[in-house]
């Protein structure tokens, strides 16, 4: 952008403007301009600053945990009794294997449910019923996205758990990995669907025409040409959905039961889905009332938060790699 | 042979459509269900004015409503200037070099942080490091961290959508870049910016995890009734739903379920209003833009 | 344009009672009708309420290359794309009349569009290879119908590539991405893809308009080689191309009410040297268009 060298502000009258006055105005404008440039750049830099702050502060708070708890215990042991050491006798244990496994299990179930539904929505929106799709699916997605996550958890609690109770082996209250997976699935479907739909819409019409002209049906065209062509978008959507589901705390907390015992999958098989369990986010959340009084437990929770942070960062890197590979293909 | 293909085609497309119908039905059912369940509380005037009662029936969301608005406005006070400035930088000043790339990546990464991680960070920085207790100010600052990338993006998009002619005209008249931005571009982008601010507000309206760690004292005992100090703690609506759900003793509070239903219904109503409102605003903005 | 409406659609069989200057049937036209692979009779086309093509009677001689020429907007592409029912994808499109291929009316309600598209192939204005390997592109049409044993599949694919004069150039990178080929190579790939299912008719919608002159000439060479075994119909803006490559030429013009109509059709040599209609002569000598 080129700055003109004419004086800024309203044009002074031709005869009367003293040269000094004009110069003063110009100088002031230029100084202001530079200042605002710096200010605005600083604001943009705040983003970087914040990320660094987040990482630094979490690392600082988690550091004492590294020494007193150690990564081996955190990742290797399922014995989680963070509060046993406070008060009278008893020693705390900080094995977080259960929440870590639980996070991945819940997200996996969520993705398994979400991806088919989200892909259907994307295909219907982009390919088979675009008019109806724009009128109903897109607004629906927006509403879905706007609903607070606690509400999803609450609905899960009052409506889904009773259904789960029917399906679960007797004696269980229905909470567990399956319930949490279903709630998460509903929360991430909009993300996956909209990114995939945009990917499908970006495919040039010529590819559809080429397929149809060779005698393919709509479904054959979708399955063999369009979905493969939209794969980068689908993968991006799935990874972002994964990250979002990993980080979800309260909605999961309301339906998972918060029990720190790894269910015996070998002996129970699928019924393990109905056993109350926990995740990293839930474990962090249930220590919220003792943050100040249980330093070791809190340090362990900071460590878990760092794990979540690392998982999120890896997701972003994966997305970027996928997008870069898609760009270079073109 | 094509008969088989046609049948497969019809079944497959039918299945896709069926899944979408299930999805849409689920959404409609969820909204209707919550509204119906919470109707009795929603239509009870005292619901909006009384505080929660942990010792008996008759809880209301009065203080929480106040807190929600308070925290939201407070956080917007930080988010909007910072986000707008960042957006101005990206739209008007930034080049395409490595530094800009880094900034954008940082913004993206910030946007992907789980809110509970931001909550814990907010606790570490705004509460622990300052040796204070949970406060609405801390909550507002945490919300700012969550919302900043979105505000930056919305501002950048609003400015980039303006026709290049506006900039050229202003500069040709001798204005500096900052004058152009302040006097010409920002006013022109105002409708889009306002819509963006409202959308940003809507995004953090339902945020609970971050506030749980920074602004709430997660007990139903002490609720700052309509205090004005940012240093006081307080629950917002979304936080309250969680806290009440997990803390209330059913024996002491017989209408706990009803109350929670009411809170959930209220949250849904506000979300729907936000949605409809933002759409309507968007349409007005487009219409206004067309007349220019 | 979406997949939404690409199933067979019920026809609008309303005849349009507008008088039109039908071309005088010359002696060669009757012969053409006798040898026709594809016959269009009374063809009309509407986009919504707008009549886009009026009353076309056209025969396409088996094994010949027929060019359809005319200025922009005269309906040539509409006519072409109606043959393999690609216009079904367009909201509000209706066709009237008949297009008969080997005794089947392609516009009729009982026409199996999917099977028909294996008999009638198409080449588009811009090459549109799928973003997969060269091999998978050519094999696409074959795999739609079901599984073929790998050796047979490979044989057909290589054969098609050979007919499209592309085999030598891609022999050692059959499984690399098709998008790595040049524009001319991609269009030949699309031709191979169409040839793989052994069509009897190939429709070409300005297939060289996105190609450089050398690639264009190569495509034209291939068209000459396909003569006899495939009936080719090419829509082209380029009169010189039509004169170079086609056996018969049909000239269309936008007529009353902005509806395209057929002005003249006949052997290419006669249409270009001795046009019967004044309008044809004007177009060919460049007085308009």
Could you write a compact summary of the structure shown?
The complex is a heterotrimer of chains A (330), B (292) and C (289). With 292 residues, chain B is mostly helical.
Q: What this model shows, in words?
A:
Chain A is mainly α. Chain A is 72% helix and 1% strand. Chain A has two domains: 48 residues; 254 residues, MetI-like (MetI-like fold), CATH 1.10.3720. Chain A is built from 13 helices and two strands, in the order ααββααααααααααα. Chain A is flat and about 75 Å long. The N and C termini of chain B lie far apart (59 Å). Chain B has two domains: 43 residues; 247 residues, MetI-like (MetI-like fold, Orthogonal Bundle), CATH 1.10.3720.10. A ten-stranded mixed β-sheet of chain C has the order 5-4-1-2-10-9-3-8-7-6, sandwiched between helices. In chain C, helix 4 packs across helix 5. Chain C starts with 26 loop residues before the first helix and ends in a 5-residue tail after the last helix. The N terminus of chain C is likely disordered. Chains A and C meet through helix 7 and helix 8 of A and helix 3, helix 4 and helix 7 of C.
Summarize the main sheet of chain B. Answer: none
Number of domains of chain B: 2
DSSP strand content of chain B = under 5%
What is the chain-wise order of helices and strands of chain A? Answer: HHEEHHHHHHHHHHH
Percentage beta strand of chain A: under 5%
Count of alpha and pi helical runs of chain B: 11
CATH architectural name of the largest domain in chain A? Orthogonal Bundle
* Global shape of chain A: flat
User: Can you identify the CATH superfamily of the largest domain in chain B?
Assistant: MetI-like
Biggest interface, and residues per chain? A-B, 95 and 95 residues
Give the integer mean of the pLDDT values of chain B.
85
């Amino acid at each position: 952008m080129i700055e003109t060298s004419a004086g800024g502000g309203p044009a002074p009258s031709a005869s009367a403007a003293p040269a000094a006055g004009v110069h003063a105005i110009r100088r002031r404008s230029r100084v202001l301009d530079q200042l605002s440039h710096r200010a605005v750049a600083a604001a943009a830099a705040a983003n970087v600053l914040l990320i660094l702050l987040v990482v630094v502060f979490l690392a600082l708070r988690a550091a004492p945990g590294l020494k007193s708890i150690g990564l081996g215990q955190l990742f290797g042991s399922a014995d989680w009794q963070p509060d046993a050491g406070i008060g009278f006798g008893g020693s705390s244990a900080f094995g977080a294997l259960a929440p870590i496994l639980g996070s991945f299990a819940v997200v996996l179930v969520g993705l398994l449910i979400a991806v088919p539904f989200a892909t259907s929505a994307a295909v219907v929106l982009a390919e088979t019923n675009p008019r109806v799709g724009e009128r109903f699916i897109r607004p629906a997605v927006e509403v879905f996205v706007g609903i607070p996550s606690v509400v999803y958890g609450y609905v899960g609690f009052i409506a889904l758990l009773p259904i789960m109770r029917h399906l679960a082996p007797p004696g269980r209250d229905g909470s567990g990995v399956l319930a949490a997976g279903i709630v998460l699935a509903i929360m991430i479907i909009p993300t996956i669907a909209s990114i995939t739909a945009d990917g499908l819409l970006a495919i040039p019409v010529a590819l559809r025409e080429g397929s149809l002209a060779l005698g393919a049906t709509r479904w054959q065209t979708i399955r063999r040409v369009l979905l493969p062509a939209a794969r980068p978008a689908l993968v991006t959507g799935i990874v972002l959905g994964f990250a979002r589901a990993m980080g979800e705390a309260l909605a999961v907390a309301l339906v998972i039961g918060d029990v720190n015992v790894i269910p015996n999958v070998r002996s129970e098989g699928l019924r393990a889905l109905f056993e109350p369990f926990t995740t990293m986010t839930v474990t962090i959340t249930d220590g919220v009332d003792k943050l100040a009084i249980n330093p070791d437990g809190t340090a362990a929770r900071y460590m878990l938060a760092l794990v979540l942070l690392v998982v999120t960062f890896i997701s972003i890197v994966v997305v970027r790699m996928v997008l870069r590979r898609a760009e270079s293909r073109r | 042979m094509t008969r088989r293909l046609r049948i497969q085609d019809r079944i497959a497309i039918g299945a896709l459509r069926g899944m979408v119908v299930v999805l849409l039905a689920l959404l409609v059912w969820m909204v209707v269900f919550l509204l119906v369940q919470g109707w009795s509380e929603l239509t009870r005037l005292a619901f909006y004015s009384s505080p929660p009662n942990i010792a008996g029936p008759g809880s209301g969301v009065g203080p929480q409503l106040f807190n929600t608005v308070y925290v939201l406005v407070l956080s917007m006070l930080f988010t909007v200037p910072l986000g707008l400035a960042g957006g101005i930088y990206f739209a008007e000043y930034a080049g395409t070099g490595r530094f800009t790339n880094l900034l954008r990546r940082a913004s993206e990464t910030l946007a992907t942080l789980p809110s509970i991680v931001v909550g814990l960070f907010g606790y570490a920085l705004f509460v622990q490091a300052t040796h204070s207790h949970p406060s609405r100010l801390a909550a507002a600052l945490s919300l700012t961290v969550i919302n900043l990338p979105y505000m930056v993006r919305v501002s950048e998009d609003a400015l980039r959508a303006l026709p290049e002619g506006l900039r050229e005209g202003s500069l040709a008249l001798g204005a500096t870049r900052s004058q152009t931005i302040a006097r010409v571009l920002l006013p022109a982008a105002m409708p889009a910016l306002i819509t963006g601010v409202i959308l940003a507000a809507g995004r953090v309206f339902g945020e609970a995890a971050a506030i749980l760690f920074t602004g709430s004292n997660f007990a139903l005992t002490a609720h700052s009734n309509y205090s004005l100090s940012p240093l006081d703690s307080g629950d917002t609506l979304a936080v309250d739903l969680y806290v009440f759900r997990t803390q209330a003793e059913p024996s002491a509070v017989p209408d706990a379920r009803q109350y929670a239903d009411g809170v959930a219904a209220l949250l849904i109503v506000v979300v729907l209003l936000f949605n409809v409102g933002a759409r309507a605003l968007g349409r007005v903005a487009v219409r206004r833009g067309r007349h220019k | 344009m979406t997949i939404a409406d690409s199933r067979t659609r019920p026809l609008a069989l309303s005849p349009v009672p507008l008088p039109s200057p039908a071309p005088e049937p010359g002696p060669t036209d009757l012969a053409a009708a006798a040898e026709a692979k594809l016959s269009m009779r009374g063809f009309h086309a509407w986009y919504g309420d707008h009549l886009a093509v009026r009353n076309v009677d056209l025969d396409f001689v088996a094994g010949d290359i027929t060019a359809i020429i005319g200025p922009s907007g005269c309906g040539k592409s509409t006519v072409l794309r109606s043959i393999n029912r690609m216009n079904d994808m367009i909201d509000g499109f209706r066709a009237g009349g008949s297009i008969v291929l080997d005794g089947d009316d392609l516009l009729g309600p009982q026409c199996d569009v999917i099977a028909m598209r294996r008999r009638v192939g198409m080449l588009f204005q811009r090459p549109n290879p799928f973003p997969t390997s060269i091999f998978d592109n050519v094999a696409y049409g074959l795999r739609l119908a079901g599984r073929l044993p790998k050796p047979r599949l490979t044989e057909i694919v290589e054969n098609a590539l050979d007919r499209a004069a592309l085999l030598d150039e891609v022999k050692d990178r059959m499984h690399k991405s098709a998008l790595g080929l040049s524009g001319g190579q991609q269009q030949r790939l699309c031709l191979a893809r169409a040839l793989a299912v052994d069509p009897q008719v190939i429709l070409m919608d300005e297939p060289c308009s996105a190609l450089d002159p050398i690639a264009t000439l190569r495509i034209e060479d291939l068209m000459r080689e396909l003569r006899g075994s495939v009936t080719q119909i090419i829509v082209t803006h380029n009169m010189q191309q039509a004169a170079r490559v086609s056996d018969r030429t049909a000239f269309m013009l936008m007529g009353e009410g902005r509806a395209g109509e057929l002005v003249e059709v006949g052997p290419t040599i006669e249409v270009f040297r001795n046009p019967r209609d004044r309008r044809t002569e004007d177009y060919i000598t460049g007085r308009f268009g």
